[in-house]
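WARN retry 2 of 3 for item q-0093 after timeout on previous attempt; input resubmitted unchanged.
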Amino acid sequence: MALEDMVDACEDIDQAGYWSVECWGGATYDACIRFLNEDPWERLRTFRKLLPNSKLQMLLRGQNLLGYRHYEDTVVDKFVEKSAENGMDVFRVFDALNDPRNMARAMAAVKKTGKHAQGTICYTISPLHTVEGYVHLAGQLLDMGAESIALKDMAALLKPQPAYDIIRGIKETYGEDTQINVHCHSTTGVTLVTLMKAIEAGADVVDTSISSMSLGPGHNPTESLVEMLEGTEYTTGLDMDRLIKIRDHFATIRPKYKAFESATLVDTDIFSSQIPGGMLSNMESQLKAQGAGDRIREVMEEVPIVKKDAGYPPLVTPSSQIVGTQAVFNVLMGRYKVMTGEFADLMLGYYGECIGERDPEVIKLAEAQTKKEPITERPADLLDPEWDKLVADAKALPGFDGTEEDVLTNAMFPGVAPKFFENRDEGPKNVGKTAEQLAAEKAAADGSAKAVRGPIKYNVSFNGRSHSVQVEPA
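OK item q-0093 returned
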């Protein structure tokens, strides 16, 4: 979504009474430079100006930062420092494998800036994942200095009773004043009830999204949560008038992005496949590109097998993409006949440790393919200092603006950043459809081109400058 489609809602968001506003990090950074020709750092600075009363929150993949590999410790420190400097307040730090070693440096870096370090438990289900194990992991994160614990349910697998048991376990073990934030997607249809049980167990903060942007692989509706708590001892304190304004704003925006929406509304098969929404759409596109779109069910059945072989990693970026792509390869080419480099590294320990034992036969295949030995140490300990090289790499690129922020952008996405730097002066691009385009499509679908009567507005870029023009229909 383009920044211009969000700014008009920011005042109401800022005044609605949220604990925090998650507005950066995760995949948003990638989307800015890959699709929108928009500087993610400028987006963050804009949010900081438009949301002066709000805590801004981001999702940080621990040692991976926002990229898809481990970065050397100095780079982690620098990224957190620049994020805080540009306006970030709450860092939700997670690791795809729940390996505390991969979160420690990022957590320490956040603490050093004086910002809020939130230690994250990625929730998944397997024969090895237990309530006691999750409570123990919360203790490890608190020992690292976490100011709050996030229970992150990216695949909507967290059922009401386990949520209650985990939260009560954390509160009873480490104290009732331990802040717990619960993050559930809504893909399986059970998680609004999960949030209720989480609140009854003592959860302090829960994640929702405004109703006009909710449900499906997204989150549960904010207004529904507010109404659900009426008549109970719990209240959100949110301003419903502000929420309605936010809802109405995004109700007009959402249709512009229909082409990018998932078709999934409710999918209870996820309880067996454990596939998060983003991973599902990624696998669908991979299969369609190979002319095998009809084999998605086979892949969904393969995913739990690959997950077990890899030691039961939670499926969240980047492990979800790694496991999902390998499952696609297994279905199309035969099980482990071809192994992606990333999956081989996962099997050899280069992403960290999983809760379960990795299949020794698959490890042998990974060793043979990569000519690398398995490791047991923290993967980042094998990395040489790289900040100076990253600076030199960025300086060599046309369009580099000389800032450390640009160095970090290129470090995170070296395959995408050079093109972005070169084209940045053209300004942001909106990939959503205009109201006029939507009306024209509707008219065409209705078989009545006369439905579009007024002048159509276009933004035209000419010689590096943007102009607004109107075109009258003939």
